[in-house]
Request: fold
Amino acid sequence: MPSYTAPVKDMQFVLHDVLKVSDADIPGYADLDRSFTEAVLDEAAKVAQDILTPLNIVGDVEGCVLENGVVRTPKGFKQAFDTLREGGWMSLDAAPEYGGQGLPYLMHTAVNETFVSANMAFNMYQGLTHGAYSAIKVHGTDEQKTKWLPKMVSCEWTGTMNLTEPHCGTDLGMMRTKAEPQADGSYKITGQKIFISAGDHDMASNIVHLVLAKAPGGGEGTKGISLFIVPKFLVNEDGSLGDRNAVSVGKVEEKMGIHGNATCVMNYDGATGWLLGELHKGMKAMFTMMNEARLGVALQGYAVAEAAYQNALTYAKDRLQGRDVTGVKNPGGPADPLIVHPDIRRNLMEQKSFLEGARAWAYWGATLIDRAHTGDMAADGLIGLMTPVLKGFLTDKGFEMAVQAQQVYGGHGYIEEWGMSQFARDARIAMIYEGANGVQALDLVGRKLATDGGKHVMAFFDLVKAECKAHEGDDRMKGFVEPLKAASKALQQAGMYFMQNGMKNPNAALAGSYDFMHMMGHVCLGLMWTKMATAAYTALDAGAEDRDFYEAKIATGRFYMARQLPACAMHLARIETGAEPVMALAAEAF
Amino acid sequence: MPSYTAPVKDMQFVLHDVLKVSDADIPGYADLDRSFTEAVLDEAAKVAQDILTPLNIVGDVEGCVLENGVVRTPKGFKQAFDTLREGGWMSLDAAPEYGGQGLPYLMHTAVNETFVSANMAFNMYQGLTHGAYSAIKVHGTDEQKTKWLPKMVSCEWTGTMNLTEPHCGTDLGMMRTKAEPQADGSYKITGQKIFISAGDHDMASNIVHLVLAKAPGGGEGTKGISLFIVPKFLVNEDGSLGDRNAVSVGKVEEKMGIHGNATCVMNYDGATGWLLGELHKGMKAMFTMMNEARLGVALQGYAVAEAAYQNALTYAKDRLQGRDVTGVKNPGGPADPLIVHPDIRRNLMEQKSFLEGARAWAYWGATLIDRAHTGDMAADGLIGLMTPVLKGFLTDKGFEMAVQAQQVYGGHGYIEEWGMSQFARDARIAMIYEGANGVQALDLVGRKLATDGGKHVMAFFDLVKAECKAHEGDDRMKGFVEPLKAASKALQQAGMYFMQNGMKNPNAALAGSYDFMHMMGHVCLGLMWTKMATAAYTALDAGAEDRDFYEAKIATGRFYMARQLPACAMHLARIETGAEPVMALAAEAF
Reply:
């Protein structure tokens, strides 16, 4: 069975050496000193390692079963959910007035990383609830907040998001689910929603579905869509549970992975719901949650890969196979460990350098969300720009790295009992849901680059430039600054190409959108590695005791800069071929 | 349920327009005229489409079950196996003296492609038999050939290959399975073998296991290994089946994919076996089969991706979602089909341009094997050089493309009933077995580049150079020749880097081996596309009727050259960073 150890030291390095969170001028951050975050992360680590990790493969093997209209979760899930609920782990960053602990979103992110690494499918029950909580908190009336939030914060009730229908996913304008207004101010919701994660289960006494539907008078397309609160059980005035609402599970899907999470077809047959937010502005309500939800999926991308990497590393150190061509390393044994072989080392370094860069980037993104919550529009713009890249790049690469981790195991990686297949199968969904990665690329190039007149992408380039400038003349940083400069220049050149050609023909930009997303992902990781190397040198210069740790950071970063940033030139070359090669073949000629 | 249509027209294009097989001076090829190959491929297409395709998802869902010591295959497999056996499909290229049809290996390859696309797991029962047949044919005594081959050619008996043990896969020198010589000239085989594909099943009356084991006196490491024929049932003098041999199935593995094929733990408990080939030269006997077996796996890589692509294409044409930003294409419908979107088009073009290039390359490889069978050492050297690249590149990319095909489906791609997950899960194994792709890269850079003083890689570069030279001054071929020249130059430069640095430090070459393998794969596909474009222009110039078909070839090829060959410069940049970034971190510092 695979194992997992929360990388608390690496997390602490990002929080304190790199992001220097307790000195950041963000509300709530002053309390985040080293000892506090370490205590929280150490406790989270125990939960992740002792409770969630052993259930990961159980969830995969057993899956969720629909019995008599109710979903039964895998053995042990309910007890674990109770334990996490009792430990307060579901409410770290929720508002204290609803029972939350009021910690920054950053701490939620770091803790969440360990939970997702340990058991992605399990953590989704809480993750969806967090999303629904945020929607009600931002868009709900005071009465709604009082009614729903406290029990959602505690996860006594969980939440879901209902967007997709059989004939429409990305293009929600075609939605058919209807909301008919009733005399008492409620609505009757009728329609079918699919792919509803955590749609039903046996771990909470009620489930609060947030459902997009069309109410009369809203017009065509997405403009006519509103958001509704539709609970599984109606809730009485005194907060006790009342009648079962007319919502039922049509089916639990058989999926490639995340078997421990119930992906449901939900049937709404005149179910009672209440409008959340403004009528006909449901899409807007959904969009305000997207940065957080997408950052959550980005985190899944690398967190699952982290767990896969840890196991691949152990296997590479333990498995004896072949001899080091430069000289035997394990003369007492029948062979040397896999890790002596350069191509295994390449594979592991690709994983390691990606994962540590991804973590730094995700945490930085979380600080921007915390800043944005205080009304910092620059932070809001920057995280808005980076969100599709975080989601698209980290989930693409996260899956790729989970597949590479599986590869280290050879044939054993393909056998389910070793658990490496599950990591790859679970990681796969993150590229698809919360907006397929092609849609992220479209959002980035078709929308975010031009947001506020391109102000945010300019600010991003200024950040990179400032980082490079800060190390000018510093020889030991050359291996970071030069590749970062080149990559950033290539990215700007790609942006220029889009500007110059996209006006005449939008396809000239859109055909390169996926490459641009990956290119920008590499630049962001290059930026993070430059910052991490700086932090590591600073610690070494200050006489840090654990020299090996900081030197490993620098070596890992140098690998990323030398071996991964060259991808940017390739992406640029592809982008500059424009729409023609991509669109030359007519649809009917395929 | 996914569908599949054998791409006979594309196959014919490769065979006749590109490879001009009936004019090739290879024994048996003169008969391969257009109408003959079309007739064979049309019949194979019917088998693939009508019999094997419907069983693909059945095999995935049901899997193989061990019951009372015998493996039960999924419902319908046995009947289908009988049908194929009766149709003579198992013996296309087998020698007529053993009941085969004596067609070239090329025809086996083309027919095999359709069968693998339709049902990879099913086809492996025959594929393994083919491998065992080849081993006995090359290394067996006349008596052994007479005894075993006729029933293996007809697939009345099937075959397996037993190499891996729990503690050793790539490094077979650590093998523990023992062979004790008996007075009657036979051996008693004792040990455990794992990952034995088609290890047991209910579709044949006997199973002929080829087993690597250590006989006394062979010394340490791989030198002591011999190959043995160990049947499930002993065979009497008259050819009838005798006693059950002491070989049993310990377990059927639960795998990520190819559930329809029984991957078995095989226990040999003093089983009776007979030496095949020379004593203590078993590795050599295995190696002579490797080019074919690895080409077979390379074919799996792209053949599964072909089936995935066909379904993704249909979905992209049918699924209405969003609008073409350059103008509505389906004004009568609620949305335009997915295929109007540039990033979907990019995705599909990547699949299409890979698949058609891969097919041409695999068929070319098969012609080299046919030439090599006639004693053509240049062909033998060239296919030996290309084999690790065919296997490594086509299976890596085949998996990647199957994943991209799945991505076109959005959320539906993750749901098992749509079948796209199965393609990705099935394709995954091809990167692992028959030598994990890292081992292919090692074989290429550590062995094949230097084989016969580098003669074969020089011959390869000469071929590319000649192709480029043939089109000098031809403006319409510029989009092919220039990228091919640049990619080939980069590949040569990488080779030079290895030569100059690998002598001092082998890791300087090995750290770049994976990149080199991919680079060479791109150059090979670039070469094939240049040849295909030439053939298409030739047909167009000759006034071919089906202009759309040939023009589509050229457009697809231009996409590959413009958008995929730039990867070579990236791989070169990575390679030229040498061993240092890869090996800088000590194993214990991970």
About this structure: The CA atoms of residues 350 and 563 of chain A lie 8 Å apart. Residues 342-373 of chain A form the longest helix (32 residues).
